[in-house]
C-alpha cells in the first residue's frame, strides 16, 4: 500500500494555529498491489467469499468540491463462492472531460460533471464481457454529496458474445443436464427525458440433448417500451411474446407509486408447445412433465387492473409429484381469460384408478387484490407412503385464497371425506446405518420440520420465511371417516397457521370423535385422539392418541404420541406389567407369558416398529438379549421384517444371527454369519441359512471417522503412559566402581 498526499495548510507557529485550506486544490495518489480479496471476509458482516489478487491506482486532483479522479483497478484469478470468474479490468474517471485531462493539469481548470467507466471480464478467450458507461454526476467531497444530473447525457454499452452456464456459474445454479448459450448486445444513450435503448439476445438452451432456440429483443425510449420473445424456431415458434408499455420513465422516477397506472398491452401465443421442454425449469418436487400447451392470450390496460382475454388448453399431460409419491396422467386443463377474471372450466387427471376433477375462478379485486376459488373432487385417489397401508381418498376440497400487498391467506374446506385403508402395506425403504458425524437430509428438509440432534452449526437454521404474513386454515366441514380392515374412526375440527418473518404459529386441532383400530390383532377403543400443529416453530403435525383394550382381564392402554412422520408407542396396563410383557400379551392374546413363541414375538415387534418407535420396549429387549447389536431391516415389503442380533465373541471374532419373517423360498428364514478379523484391515465373512443359501467374502476396510480417530489417539496415549510407568519401575543401574574409567567430557 502506497499513499502520497498534498494537502494545503497554513501553520502559524507563533500563534499555534493550524488552518486547512479546504477550498484550495488537493492531490492524492493511492496505490494498492498484491492484495488478496479473501481478507475481505474478515471485515464484512456477510462475507462475499471472494478470492483473487487485486491491484489498483487512484489519483485525485483539484478542489474537493469539484475533484478530478482517475481509477485503474485489476483483479487476477478472481473467484466467487469457490467458482472461477476470471480476470477483471476496470478503468474509470471523473472530472475534466470525463477524465480525458491529465492529472497534472492546472488546478484552476474547470472540472466537468461526467463519470466514465469501462469494465472487461475475461473468463477465457471465448467468454468475455465488455461494458462501458457514462453517468453525469456532481460530486462534492467537501460536503459529502453526490448528485445525479438526470438532464445530462447518459450512455451504456454491453457486449457479451457468449453467455452460458459456465460464465454464470458463480451466480446461477443450472439444473443438471441443462446447457444454454446466448449472445447479447445492449446500447442506450440520451437523457432521462429523451433516450433510446436497444437490447438484442439470441441463442439456444439444451436439456438432455434437446435444443430450444431463444431470441429476445427490447426497444425502449423515454415514453414507449416494447419487448419480443421467441422460444423455438423463428418461423414457427413454440412460444411468442409481444408486449408494449407506455410508461414515462421521468414520471416514474418522480413518483415511484405511479407504476400501477402504467398502460400496457401484451400478446402470448403458443401452439402445441411440448411441456417436456420445461423440465429444466421445474423444481425437484415435480418430475417427468409431459403434454402439449396451446395458449392464446391478450392483456391490455393498466398494470393494476389489466383486462384479460384468451384461452389456455393443456392436453394429454402427465406429472410426478414427488412429495405425494404420485404420478398424475391424462391431465386435461381448460382455462378462459375474460377481462379481470380467469375461469378454470376443466381440470381432470388420473392417478392409477383414482380420478381428480375440478373447476374454479380467479379475479382481480380493487380492494382485496387477487381472489381465487377452487373446487376439486377426488374419487378413489390412491395414497402411497412407505411403511404405511395403502389408502384411497374420496373427498371434496373447497379452497379460497387472497393475495395482496398485505400478505396471503388460504382456506381449505374438506367435505364428504372418506379414507379407505386397504389390506397390505407399501414397500418400505431399507434402513440407513447410523454413523457418527454423518447426517442424512432429504431434498426438502424444511418440509419435515425435523431437528437433527447434534448436527453441525447452521444445519438446523430456521427456514426462510415469507416477507409478508401468510395464513392457512384447514376446516373439516364434515367428519372425516377412516375405515378399513381393523379400523373405523371419525375425525372433526380445524387447524390454522400463520407464518411471517418473525415466527410461525399455529392453533386448533383435528379430534377423533369416535372410533376403534386394530393393533397386533386386538381391537382398541379410542378414548382420546387429536392432531395438532406446533404452536411455535415448524408445520409438522403432532398426534396424541390413547386407546384401551382387554386381554384376559388385563386392561392395556396404548399411547401414540409425536410427529405423524414417526410417532412413539408406549404401552401400560392395569395391573402393571413391563412393556415387553404387555407386547407379548398383545401378540399371543393371552396373559400366560410362558406360552408365547419368542420368534413370533420378535417378528411381530419388528413389523410394529415399521411406523412406530417404542424406546421402552427396545431398551428392555436389548437388556434381555445381552447382545452388542440389535438391528432391523426389511425384505421386499414391510411384511418381511429382518431382525438381526450380533455379539462380539472375542477381539477378532464377531457372530450374528438373523430371522427373516415371511422370507421367500429363495432366501433364508434363519441365518448365521461370522466375521473374523485376521489382520488390522482385513476380515473374512461367511454366512449360511436354512434355505441352503450361503457365501464367503473377504474385505479390506479403512475407517476414518472422528470417533475411531479419537479411540486411536486414546489408545496411543495409554500405551505411552504404560511405557513411561514401566521405565520408572525399572531398577536403577549399580553405581560405577572406582576403577571404572570416567566418561569423556563433552
Question: Would you kindly provide a written description of the structure presented here, covering whatever features stand out?
Answer:
The protein has about 750 residues and is mainly beta. The chain is about 10% helix and about 55% strand. It has 6 helices and 38 strands. It has a 30-stranded mixed sheet that branches. A hairpin with a 2-residue loop joins strand 13 and strand 14. Helix 3 packs across helix 4. It is extended and about 110 Å long. It starts with a strand and ends in a 17-residue tail after the last helix. The C terminus is likely disordered.
Tell me the layout of helices and strands.
Blueprint (H helix, E strand, L loop, with lengths): L1 E5 L2 E4 L4 E4 L5 E11 L13 E13 L5 E13 L2 E12 L19 E11 L2 E14 L4 E4 L5 E11 L13 E13 L4 E13 L2 E12 L3 E8 L4 E10 L2 H6 L8 E12 L11 E17 L3 E16 L4 E14 L1 E11 L2 E12 L3 E15 L5 E16 L2 E19 L19 H4 L21 E15 L2 E13 L4 E16 L2 E11 L9 E10 L2 E10 L4 E7 L4 H10 L9 H11 L6 H11 L3 E6 L6 E8 L4 E8 L9 E10 L2 E8 L4 E7 L5 H24 L17
Parallel strand pairs: 25-26
Antiparallel strand pairs: 1-4, 2-3, 4-5, 5-6, 6-7, 7-8, 8-9, 9-10, 9-11, 11-12, 12-13, 13-14, 14-15, 15-16, 16-17, 17-18, 18-19, 19-20, 20-21, 21-22, 22-23, 23-24, 24-25, 26-27, 27-28, 28-29, 29-30, 30-31, 31-32, 33-34, 34-35, 35-36, 36-37, 37-38
Amino acid at each position: 500500500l502506497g499513499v502520497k498526499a498534498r494537502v494545503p495548510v497554513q501553520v502559524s507557529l507563533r500563534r499555534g494555529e493550524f488552518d486547512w485550506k479546504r477550498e484550495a486544490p488537493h492531490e492524492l495518489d493511492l496505490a494498492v498491489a498484491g492484495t488478496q480479496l479473501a481478507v475481505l471476509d474478515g471485515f464484512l458482516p456477510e462475507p462475499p467469499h471472494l478470492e483473487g489478487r487485486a491491484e489498483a491506482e487512484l489519483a485525485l486532483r483539484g478542489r474537493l468540491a469539484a475533484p478530478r479522479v482517475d481509477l485503474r483497478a485489476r483483479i487476477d484469478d478472481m473467484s466467487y463462492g469457490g467458482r472461477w470468474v476470471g480476470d477483471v479490468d476496470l478503468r474509470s474517471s471523473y472530472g475534466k472531460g470525463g477524465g480525458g485531462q491529465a492529472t497534472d493539469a492546472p488546478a484552476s481548470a474547470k472540472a466537468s460533471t461526467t463519470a466514465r467507466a469501462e469494465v472487461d471480464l475475461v473468463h477465457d478467450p471465448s467468454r468475455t464481457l465488455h461494458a462501458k458507461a457514462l453517468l453525469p454526476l456532481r460530486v462534492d467531497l467537501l460536503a459529502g454529496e453526490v448528485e445525479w444530473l438526470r438532464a445530462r447525457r447518459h450512455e451504456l454499452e454491453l457486449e457479451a458474445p457468449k453467455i452460458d452456464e459456465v460464465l454464470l456459474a458463480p451466480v446461477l445454479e443450472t439444473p443438471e443436464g441443462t446447457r444454454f448459450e446466448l449472445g447479447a448486445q445492449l446500447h442506450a444513450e440520451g437523457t432521462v427525458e429523451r433516450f433510446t435503448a436497444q437490447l438484442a439476445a439470441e441463442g439456444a438452451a439444451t436439456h438432455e440433448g434437446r435444443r430450444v432456440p431463444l431470441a429476445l429483443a427490447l426497444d425502449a425510449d423515454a415514453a414507449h417500451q416494447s419487448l419480443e420473445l421467441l422460444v423455438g424456431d423463428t418461423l414457427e415458434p413454440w412460444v411468442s411474446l409481444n408486449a408494449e408499455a407506455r410508461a414515462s420513465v421521468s414520471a416514474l422516477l418522480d413518483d415511484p407509486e405511479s407504476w400501477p397506472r402504467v398502460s400496457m398491452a401484451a400478446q402470448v401465443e403458443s401452439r402445441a408447445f411440448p411441456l417436456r421442454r420445461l423440465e429444466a425449469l421445474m423444481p425437484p418436487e415435480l418430475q417427468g412433465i409431459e403434454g402439449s400447451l396451446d395458449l392464446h392470450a391478450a392483456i391490455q390496460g393498466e398494470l393494476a387492473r389489466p383486462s384479460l382475454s384468451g384461452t389456455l388448453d393443456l392436453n394429454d399431460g402427465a406429472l410426478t409429484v414427488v412429495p405425494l409419491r404420485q404420478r398424475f396422467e391424462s391431465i386435461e386443463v381448460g382455462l378462459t381469460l375474460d377481462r379481470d377474471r380467469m375461469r378454470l372450466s376443466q381440470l381432470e387427471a388420473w392417478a392409477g384408478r383414482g380420478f381428480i376433477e375440478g373447476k374454479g375462478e380467479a379475479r382481480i379485486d380493487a380492494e382485496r387484490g387477487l381472489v381465487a376459488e377452487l373446487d376439486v373432487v377426488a374419487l378413489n385417489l390412491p395414497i402411497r407412503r412407505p411403511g404405511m397401508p395403502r389408502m384411497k381418498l374420496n373427498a371434496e376440497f373447497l379452497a379460497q385464497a387472497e393475495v395482496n400487498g398485505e400478505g396471503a391467506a388460504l382456506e381449505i374446506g374438506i367435505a364428504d371425506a372418506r379414507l379407505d385403508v386397504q389390506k397390505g402395506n407399501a414397500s418400505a425403504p431399507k434402513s440407513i446405518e447410523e454413523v457418527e458425524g454423518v447426517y442424512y437430509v432429504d431434498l426438502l428438509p424444511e418440509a419435515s420440520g425435523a431437528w437433527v440432534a447434534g448436527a453441525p452449526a447452521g444445519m438446523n437454521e430456521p427456514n426462510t420465511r415469507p416477507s409478508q404474513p401468510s395464513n392457512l386454515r384447514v376446516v373439516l366441514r364434515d367428519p372425516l371417516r377412516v375405515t378399513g380392515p381393523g379400523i373405523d374412526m371419525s375425525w372433526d375440527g380445524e387447524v390454522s397457521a400463520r407464518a411471517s418473518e418473525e415466527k410461525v404459529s399455529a392453533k386448533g386441532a383435528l379430534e377423533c370423535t369416535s372410533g376403534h383400530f386394530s393393533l397386533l390383532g386386538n381391537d382398541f377403543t379410542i378414548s382420546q385422539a387429536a392432531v395438532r400443529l406446533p404452536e411455535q416453530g415448524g408445520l409438522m403435525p403432532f398426534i396424541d392418541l390413547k386407546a384401551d383394550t382387554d386381554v384376559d382381564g388385563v386392561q392395556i392402554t396404548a399411547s401414540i404420541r409425536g410427529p405423524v412422520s414417526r410417532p412413539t408407542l408406549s404401552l401400560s396396563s392395569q395391573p402393571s406389567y413391563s412393556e415387553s410383557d404387555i407386547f407379548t400379551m398383545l401378540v399371543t392374546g393371552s396373559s400366560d407369558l410362558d406360552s408365547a413363541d419368542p420368534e413370533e414375538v420378535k417378528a411381530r415387534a419388528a413389523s410394529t416398529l415399521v411406523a412406530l418407535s417404542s424406546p421402552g420396549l427396545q431398551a428392555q429387549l436389548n437388556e434381555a438379549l445381552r447382545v452388542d447389536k440389535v438391528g432391523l431391516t426389511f425384505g421386499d415389503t414391510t411384511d418381511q421384517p429382518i431382525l438381526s442380533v450380533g455379539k462380539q465373541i472375542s477381539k477378532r471374532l464377531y457372530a450374528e444371527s438373523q430371522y427373516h419373517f415371511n422370507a421367500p423360498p429363495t432366501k433364508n428364514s434363519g441365518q448365521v454369519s461370522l466375521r473374523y478379523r485376521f489382520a488390522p484391515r482385513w476380515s473374512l465373512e461367511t454366512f449360511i441359512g436354512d434355505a441352503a443359501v450361503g457365501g464367503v467374502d473377504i474385505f479390506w476396510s479403512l475407517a476414518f471417522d472422528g470417533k475411531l480417530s479419537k479411540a486411536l489417539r486414546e489408545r496411543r496415549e495409554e500405551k505411552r503412559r504404560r511405557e513411561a510407568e514401566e521405565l520408572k519401575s525399572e531398577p536403577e543401574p549399580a553405581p560405577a566402581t572406582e576403577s571404572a574409567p570416567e566418561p569423556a567430557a563433552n
